[in-house]
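Hi V.,

You were right to ask for the full record rather than a summary. Here it is.
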Amino acid sequence: MFENPFHLFDTFLFDGDGVLYKENSPLPGAIELLSQLEKSGKKILLLTNNSTKVRTDYVQKLSDMGIAIKKEDILTSSYLTAKHISEKKPNSRIYVIGEEGLKKELQNLNLEVVNPKIETNNEEIFDFDFEGIDYVVTGMDRKLNYVKMARAMNLLRKKDKTVEFIATNADISFPTNNGLIPGGGAMITVLEELSGRKVSKIIGKPQEKMYLTALEISNTPKEKAIMFGDRLHTDIYGANQIGITSCLVLSGVTSQEDLEEPSDDLSPDIIINDLLDVLKPIT
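Predicted structure:
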């Protein structure tokens, strides 16, 4: 058993899937820990690479599980992708490989999604205006089909290379109660192979934008923040690169067997089985 170091931190950053919850069920210790942190005056933020929901959806999802986190304290890869594009090129026109949450976050910042409606394999692939599009943006897409892949492929293969390729996140897998399914990173792999182009920017963890935005929102120096995550190559690696204390939670995709010889960049500062291990008085 380790000595509880968690009272040293002012801001607690949590991944969602595999740490606080799995699908629509809270994981052991999540509700109790967040309640304890709130009573202790700690700052709590959710940092998720999941691009399928808007932030208000997460507020409701968490509320349904008995977890209260404000919209302003929820950072998703879809929201930060929309924020990045709106700051770099307002009024952009975007082709989306992704779900409604990603499309809505882009539209909420006055960006034009050129494929807002559901595309089906009954459509003619080239019955589509391929001109004047600034970005192909990818996220997890559980309704990815042939037509969408073909249209995105042709946009990225344009000779002038004016269409930029951006991804919300690179998570290859996504945890469910029944096992892993393909995540946002799988969409990147497909389109890179089809187009012969590499993604130019990835917004979500382990990239620094999500971590730095969280520190800015909470007005916290990195030394006073801790990141709880279940993925070595995203949550833990990203926190380590920024200089935020990293805590690996073994309730998600990473198991004890995956920790035999992690590199220094992937080595968490703290390892716990689940959030129940944190439930000691935090003052």
